[in-house]
Write a structure and sequence with these properties.
Structural class: alpha+beta
Helix content: 25-40%
Low-confidence stretches: none
CATH superfamily: GTP cyclohydrolase I, C-terminal domain/NADPH-dependent 7-cyano-7-deazaguanine reductase, N-terminal domain
Strand order of the largest sheet: 3-1-2-4-5
Distance between the termini: 19 Å
CATH architecture: 2-Layer Sandwich
Radius of gyration: 16 Å
Largest sheet: 5 strands, mixed
Number of strands: 5
Mean pLDDT: 91
């Protein structure tokens, strides 16, 4: 399956369990992986036959306007649902990175929504974890 990858889309959203944390927007990085068959788009060189990643990014940014979430898990699930409903990829993976815990690069959640696929082999899992296979985030 072909994929569109959006890596670290920067947004300023109100997220956090304590009210004080949600009071001000904070920097989050959102990565997306959208599975879609590119055959027709490639054959015709026509945007209407693929997923418009600019429109997806604009829609993700707009999702946070006037909203707040306690959990980045909730945000990630909501983003995945919105993308599936509005853009209809075969599968969507969403990672939300938050920069809240001192001494860490980030804390992240990852969700995946779409049709079931066969379980990955141990080799595929290792390759995904090291960034060697499409479908994995580093």
């Amino acid at each position: 399956m072909d994929s569109i990858l959006v890596s670290d889309l920067e947004v300023q959203f109100h997220v956090g369990v304590p009210d004080a944390e949600r009071a001000q927007p904070q920097r989050l990085l959102i990565s997306l992986e959208l599975d879609h068959n590119f055959e027709q788009a490639a054959a015709t060189d026509d945007l209407t036959h693929t997923l418009n990643y600019d429109a997806v990014c604009q829609r993700v940014r707009a999702l946070g306007e006037g909203r707040s979430w306690k959990l980045i898990e909730t945000l990630a699930v909501e983003i995945a649902g919105m993308i599936r409903k509005e853009f209809k990829p075969a599968r969507v993976r969403v990672m939300v990175k938050k920069f809240i815990i001192p001494g860490t690069q980030f804390v992240a959640v990852r969700v995946e929504r779409g049709p079931l696929r066969p379980p990955e082999t141990a080799r595929e899992r290792v390759m995904r974890q090291i960034g060697g296979v499409p479908g994995g985030f580093r």
